[in-house]
Amino acid sequence: MSTAEIPHDTPESYPRTARTTPTRARERATYDRAFVHGVLDEGYLCHLAFVREGAPVCLPMLYARVDERLYIHGSTGARPLREAGEADPGLPVCVTVTHVDGLVLAKSVFHHSVNYRSVVVHGHACAVTDEEERSTALDALTNSAVPGRADDSRRGSPKELAATAVLRIDLEEVSAKSRTGGPNDEPEDLDLPYWTGVLPVATAYGEPVPADYLAPGVPVPGYLTARGRRLR
Amino acid sequence: MSTAEIPHDTPESYPRTARTTPTRARERATYDRAFVHGVLDEGYLCHLAFVREGAPVCLPMLYARVDERLYIHGSTGARPLREAGEADPGLPVCVTVTHVDGLVLAKSVFHHSVNYRSVVVHGHACAVTDEEERSTALDALTNSAVPGRADDSRRGSPKELAATAVLRIDLEEVSAKSRTGGPNDEPEDLDLPYWTGVLPVATAYGEPVPADYLAPGVPVPGYLTARGRRLR
């Protein structure tokens, strides 16, 4: 990423804080804004953690990034969305996005590992009420899972929009971790007879399955067939 | 699952509690033990949430199930593992496992959805100190990501085992949610021109990449080549 693409008031890294500094494997941590954005933009499923009655709760949610904001959405009746709307200055949350890239097989069990990229966001989830921001966020959420889809479907009616809560989490306290490459075995283990290396892992997509009520002849849109990794 | 496979004192469902009862989409929730085990056994990556200084923390971790217990492990120096070892009766945690099976494209944005299966476990993470249980758990953790691998690698030395913390979470307060099938559009939207259906999603595996120090002629083990879905 060239510095020309970064607004002048946005440093290239997120500031490091006590809770974004790992106690170990610090060499796997990064605060680089472009790396964080890359990890976030590749995915659409996050795990959202919050505290309810003193105990942790962790739920899978869809998300989208718009600049330095993450958005999640759901029914206005869903508990976490309702709680975030009522809390001031928002519900304390931790949002984590993880991509597994490979299973790392070493000679020894101890050095088995996983190649991955993850982003952890600490912040507050706040209800978005501004209609323009809600509209931008909802389009981004649709396009996060299926890029190009927002413009190729019927957008929300007033009634549907009224039933949809949108939450924003500002990207302020953010860190990423990653591991890449092959196994790192002990020198004295190198002659052991076991296969060692990496089994690549990725999310992949199958052939689109039309709805049973889809009229014949409607072509599969290019944004689906052009989708990255395919299942065989 | 036949009832003959279930010990007589184990009911077929986990008991429903206040926090495992969703406020909405209850029809997507299940407490069926065999369904929960199936979701857990298909994966190896969980998101572990806990509370630190009043705020939620959510981290990706490997896990394994052994009967009615989940195990996670890590360095004895890692913060969450240290905190769990010191807490009595363990660190309150929420462990969530999610599989995305498909992106559901409806005529309207509002009815877009995701086909998925997820399990949420509420409980306490306790340090495992019994050597036999630790050994069983560590083998299960190795085999969780790569079934068959524990017997085909060098097991931990006393020094390596001393540096490894193992935590247990009992499967007591557990629920699953899932969505399957095609989109559910409003009757008045059915004639809209947009493609509708499901884009299947799955985790897939590539060709194993040998370590640069692997001696020539070591065959790729069958437990890697036999691995389910493949990338193309």
Can you put this structure into words, describing what you see?
The structure is a homodimer of 232-residue chains. Chain A has helices at 33-42, 79-86, 131-145, 158-162, 222-225, and strands at residues 29-30, 45-52, 55-62, 64-66, 69-75, 91-105, 113-127, 164-170, 173-179, 197-205, 209-210. By secondary structure, chain A is an alpha+beta fold. Chain A has a single domain, classed as Roll (Pnp Oxidase, Chain A), CATH 2.30.110. In chain A, strands 1, 2, 3, 4, 5, 6, 7, 8, 9 and 10 form a ten-stranded antiparallel β-sheet that branches. Strand 11 (209-210) of chain A pairs antiparallel with strand 10 of chain B, so a sheet runs across the interface. Chains A, B: InterPro entries: Pyridox_Oxase-rel, Split_barrel_FMN-bd. Chains A, B: This is Pyridoxamine 5'-phosphate oxidase family protein.
**CATH fold field value of chain A:** Pnp Oxidase, Chain A
Task: Give the termini distance of chain A in whole angstroms.
Answer: 34 Å
Record field, number of beta strands of chain A: 11
Tell me, rounded to a whole number, the average pLDDT of chain A.
92
Biggest chain contact: A-B, 99 and 99 residues
What amount of the residues of chain A lies in strands?
Answer: 35-45%
**Overall 3D geometry of chain A?**
globular
Task: Provide a brief overview of the structure.
The structure is a homodimer of 232-residue chains. With 232 residues, the first copy, chain A, is α+β, with helices and mostly antiparallel strands.
